[in-house]
Amino acid sequence: MLAPALGVLALLFGGALVGAVRQSLEPPLGGGVSTWSVDSWRALAGDPAFWDALAFSARTAVVATLAASALALLIAGSLRRRGTRLRALVALPVPVPHLLVAVTAVLWLSPGGLADRALGALPVDLVRDPLGIGVALVYVYKETPFLVLLLLAVMGTDLDEREEMARVMGHGRALRMRLVVWPAVRAPLATGALIVGAFVFGAFEVPLAIGPTYPPALAEYAYESTRGSALTGSGRAAAALLVAAAASVLLAAAAVRIARAGRR
Amino acid sequence: MTVLRHLDLAVPDGCRTALVGPSGAGKTTLLRAVCGLEPLQAGTVSLGDRRVDDLPAHRRRCAVVFQEPRLLEHLDVVDNVAFALRAAGVRRAERRARARRLLSDVGLPGFEARGVAGLSGGEQQRVALARALCADPVLLLLDEPLASVDPNRRRDLRRLIVDLQEARGVTMLLVTHDRDEAAEIGQRVALMLEGRIVQHDEPRALYERPLSAAVARFFGAAVLRGEVRAGHLVTGAGSVPVPGPDGAGAVAVRPERVLLDPEGPLALTVHESVYAGTHTRLVMRAAGVTLEARCDPGDAPPAGARVRVALPFEHVWRLPVDDGAAVTV
């Protein structure tokens, strides 16, 4: 039953991965068709810009994921006994494309943008700021509702009933949070957070639209590598993308494992 | 919305009281109000001499066994049982030792390390019962605890609830819609109809000496109405001797007391004849009179048969209050 879906995945994702591995192992100047070379990997490891890009992507992913998770917990906790209208409002940003949010953020937050004109100078630069705060904020705005939806799915009647049980068993609010609510939400929260982290780590369009010129995000670094030199850059770009893909696969595997453990 | 009004229920200390009534009567609302899960608009709740209606649920010392076991899946069986002791600050080793003893008491020795997801419905409810007892409550509340249990296991669990209550002497209030369960478990039974307690007495009294037609009907008795003349109730189907003074009156008769007797004073037609395993249930009607009887499956007349019926005088109960159709059951 899963064969068609798995086939498409294997073709698109597996095919791209195999292609990237091949490209990253080809000799940089196209010499020797049958020879493998790790020169692209060496060049990647020796390029300080790669390490800066890796650190930037990792930092943005960690900050955005932690902030979105904390915010999602607070929002889901306050929405769990509210009606569906408010929930739908909170979920509105989920289907909006990331690029649209990033472009809107540029329009509003860039120097001389709409916010500047309406409110005067903003206290912080969020567009092209070297720390990537703007990038992280866009992802917090986009991913928090996704995590809220995941959390609300487990904060239903079952959880209310277990909390009631805990109340009549002598547990106050803090103990109920620790012993009943947190164990119920931690697996879906961790799963969702890992998915968000993997996504932000490999993201391209938001850092390109709103992120700093330097350091770039990892995907931006790969893209720029191919533009810099078609002959030497494509192998380095493939190697950089494989690093991003490996991190995403590891995070996704951890998410699946946590989800499975949560169901047991 | 007001669900309960003019309600006064005293649960004797150390006793098992069953609160019975049809769905929607307000039984669960009352139980939730007692334990603090439902706020009161008016009235008081006291445990012994202590007013508790101004206390939050977690300070009332009422443990509840709900209809669903409400176990915590991230904890094993023994930690589920010991759950209340965490709030009391009891050390882990002590908690687990007490929980183990209770597991043995509820018939689940050796289940300590098992996950709760793999337990049957009956086993889960035993764990929930052990968890409630582990809290050492002043009042143990049970809200339809056997409703989701396999019928074959219910009898064992009823016996277990009675045995545990007797061994510990804990005051217990059971909510159920099952009159037989109420009678089997409760030393006293309170019938609740439309948010009011209409009779509170020992089980036999509600079955055999109901205060009103509504109580009689809930507990399965038929109600005959008519004019009592010279000690006989005159109905469209015939006259039967009844106790009490002359005048308008109503009597209750239980189906197991109704006799098919060719010399009987009431002439009726069998409307339904339903085989029920241990007996055949007959519903008989004539001229506004409806009676139910139980008879041996071998002797049961078929639907449509004309029969004569006798009502033994000693089993005919004159209703002190004829509430007519005021309360629908």
**How many helices of chain B?**
9
Order of helical and strand elements of chain B: EHEEEHHHHEHEHEEHHEEEEEEEEEE
Order of helices and strands of chain A: HHHHHHHHHHHH
Helix content of chain B: 25-40%
- Straight-line distance between termini of chain B: 21 Å
The dominant shape of chain B is elongated
Reported for the largest beta sheet of chain A, the result is: none
Mean pLDDT of chain A: 86
Q: What multimeric state do the chains show?
A: heterodimer
Task: Output the structural class of chain A.
Answer: mainly alpha
The number of distinct helices of chain A, counting runs of at least 4 residues, comes to 12
Structural class of chain B: alpha+beta
What is the tally of beta strands of chain A?
0
The total count of strands of chain B amounts to 18
Question: What is the strand content of chain A?
Answer: under 5%
Strand order of the largest sheet of chain B: 4-5-6-1-7-8
Q: Any low-confidence stretches of chain A, pLDDT <50, length ≥5?
A: none
Task: Tell me which protein chains meet in the greatest interface and how many residues each side has.
Answer: A-B, 17 and 28 residues
Low-confidence stretches of chain B: 325-329
**Outline of chain A:** globular
